[in-house]
Amino acid sequence: QVQLVESGGGLVQPGGSARLSCAASGIRFAGNTMGWYRQAPGKQRELVAEGTSGGSTNYADSVNGRFIISRDNGKNTMYLQMNSLKPEDTAVYYCSVRVLGGIFWGQGTQVTVSS
User: Fold this and answer.
1) What letters, b where the CB count within 10 A reaches 16 and e where it falls short, cover 47-74?
2) Which stretches of the chain score pLDDT less than 50?
């Protein structure tokens, strides 16, 4: 059974930083495409950052240069380092693993950027 568990969300001041973690069981990040998505109230879920098995990364224009996606294969955990956070980054953040035929999701973690 595949399980993805996010952690690290919370309240952050504008300009601050936070790191999200996603621990996986039942699946390996290595060899698969991993990703972070977010969904703000009233909006569709959107891709924030993606990392392929080959090591390439892609970022949404809105976070490029501020967010970094990474993984620790030994811990089977992926991360999203978020810097220079803005109020518009407020959303529920979901980690994902894409495999042939489908995608697995975590339960989501709330990130609120506010003073």
Assistant:
1) ebbbbeeeeeeebeeebeeebbbebeee
2) none
